[in-house]
Structures are given as structure tokens and as C-alpha cells.
Amino acid sequence: MVNFYIFNPAEKLRFLSRILFRGSKRLLKNANATPTVPVKSHKVNLSCLANVDPCTTPSSGGLIIRDSEYYKDASEGGFCIFRVENTLFKVHRCFLLRELSAFGDLFSLPACYSHDGNSDDTAIPLSDSVERFRDLLWALYALPTELCPAQNSLYSVSLDRLMNIAEIANKYCFASYEAWAVERIYSLAQDSAGPLSKASPDLFARVLNIAGLCNHIPLLDFVTDRLVPRILWSSMPLEVITEVAERHGIRRLIGISYYKQLIAIEQSPCGDRVTSFPIFPPAFNVEQRMRFLAAHHSLLKIWESLRTRPLPFHSAGCSTHADCLATWEKLWFDAGMANESFLFDSADVLGRLKIMMLYLRSAVTVSPSMSLQCTLAALEAITMTRDEVIDQLVTFFDI
User: Which of 34, 160, 208, 216 is most open to solvent, judged by the fewest CB atoms within 10 Å of its CB?
Assistant: First the structure.
């Protein structure tokens, strides 16, 4: 009896493909270009590429059909047949082997393997959706002009197709196609009137997950910056965002999400009144309750410190800086005691700080006792403090 041992070289394939991809881009890029190449390793289990047990193949029942576009003419030769859900795809092997990918390992399986892809009956089953695999094939078969359109053709490829390509290219270790798709997604995301301008939480979560999978830091930071104000100042559902943030360790979003949960808990009705301390839902375990209580205590201390200690600022070129500081201190104490700030929950530091910012912005601009230089420096100090609180939120939950 002969034993076959199959190992998964996906990590090595991804590493080698990145090296080759970087080398080819160095020869072609201009001096100012900064290519983004995925660096995070994601191993591909061969059982995900080809399921050898017909009983567990996806959508094993129902009529099997041939894809109208990507079931190629057999007269050309060099094909491999895949089954995705209930659809067959007949694809040139050379397109799948053009760069190092998981398909190279798949095609090197022993000859006794029952699903060799040489006929419809022995098609290789893949655990993908038809739409996603079809979009990968579109990219593999696309002409250079389709992949690199003119500058004014930003939307020549839809965001849905780009996301499909990025996800499946990451899964099968197509480094160049993954990088291309993520760069195009990043360009679309930066468009002020683009698809992310009014995106749903699910779309934000998917783009954020792609940025994390492909380790595209600019896209990750951009989406995070767009999400922070929406999470803070709207009733945006947090479940999918929090799940992705925890999966990829995006600490800034984790902190914001937990903070909003804490504020929502504190706002929970207790009889006929709103509580000023957290009343945890039954689903919270002991560890979660301890973490949220620690964060609640820290936020109360931070607010008390902010309210009673005017923020320092420095202003070069102001001849009356001492008088400006005295005026600033008085306005700061007045802002801390403004009635509007007490409409927010006791731990809602950012909500109360926002009221203080609005009050002070109005007060300092009309105050004759503060110079323009000091006014701008003081307002900048508030903005920096707010950003620091946001960045440190996750630490308050003892994570």
C-alpha cells in the first residue's frame, strides 16, 4: 500500500509570487510610484480548492450547466474544467499558471486523483460562488486596456467586481491581481462622490475586510477615518464593523465600537429613568462586564480631568499671550459647566467634549481678549485632544 502525503505550500507560493511581482514592478514603475503588494500570509487549504468527497461538494444537487462565457472551445486544447456550485467552467491552464498561485499546486496532485478536471464528469469542485469565480476569470482573460483604463475611466470596472477579484485572488495567491484590485478599490474609495460616500455598514465592513486581508494600510486607514465619525455621531449598526475590526486587530475601530456599546448600555432604561451607570445585558459575561466597568470608570476620570483643567497651548508671535491664557481658562470653565454638556451620559466624554468645542469655538472668535494666533492654537489643542481620546479608547477596555 502506497501512502500519499499532501502538504499545503500556499504560504511559500505567496512569498515567491510577491518576490516576482515586486521584481517585475521595479522594472516598469516610475520614480514616484509606490506599489502596494500584499504581505500578510493566508494559507489555502487544499480541501477548499478541490473537495475530493463528492458528497460534500457545494450544491451537489440540481442541474449542472456550462458557463456561457468561460466554458471554452475544446479544440484549442490545454484546458481544465472546474465546477463551482452547479456551473462548469472550462479554462486554459496557462492563464491559471501565468504566475505562482495555489492552482500550480492543485495541478501537481497525483495522477490517481479522481477530480483531474479533464472532463465534465471529473471537474474539479471549488468552494466559491459562481459570480466570484467568473470575476476572477474575467481578470485573467482581460486585455491590458481593460485592466489599465484611461485616467477618466475610474468606474470602468464595478466595485463589486473589484471586491470579488481582490478576495478570490487573495485566496488563491494571485499577488499581482490582488494588488491591482485593491489599488482600484482604494481609488474608488477616495472619490468624494464614490460608492463609499453613502455606503451601508455591510459594504464598509467588506472593504475593510479586504484591506485587512491584503494588508493595504492606506485603504485600511482611509476606511477607518471615514467610519469613526459615522460610528460616533450616527445610529449606524456596529455588529459587522466590530466583527471585522476584531478579526484584523484594528484597535481604533475596536475602541470606538466598544465605546458606543458602553454609551448605549448606560442609556438603557431602568424603570422610568435613564441610568447614569452601565446596566449590562444578560449576554455579557463576567470578563466583558469587568472590562466595560473599567472603561466606564476611566472615562469618568478623563472627563473630570478635562473639565477642570484648561488645555494648554502655545502661540508664537502673540505679544499678549498671558492675557489670552487667562481668557481661555475662564472660557474653558464656562464651557465645562454648560447645560448642554449634561444632556450626555456621564461616560460620554466625546459627546461632552464636542459640546465644549462648539461653545469655545463660538466664544473665542468673538472674544476681544484673545489674539487670532492664540484663538487658532487653542482650537487646534481641542481637536488634538479629541483625536487622542479616540485613539486611546481601546486601552480603557483593558485589551
Answer: 34
CA distance 24 to 35: 11
- pLDDT tens for 132-187 read 999 999 999 998 888 876 655 777 889 999 999 999 999 999 999 999 999 999 99
Q: Residue 275 pLDDT more than 70?
A: no
Which stretches of the chain are assigned E, i.e. beta strand? 65-71, 79-84, 87-92, 124-126, 269-270, 273-274
- Whether residue 18 contacts residue 38, with contact meaning beta carbons closer than 8 Å, is answered with yes
Residue 137 burial class via C-beta count within 10 angstroms: exposed 0-12, middle 13-18, buried 19 and up: buried
Specify the pTM: 0.77
Backbone angles phi, psi at 31, to 5 degrees: -70, -25
Whether the CB-CB separation of 344 and 373 falls below 8 Å is answered with no
Task: State how far the Cα of 223 lies from the Cα of 204, in Å rounded to an integer.
Answer: 7
Cell numbers representing residue 265 in the block = 448600555
Quote the pLDDT of residue 399.
57
5: which DSSP letter?
-
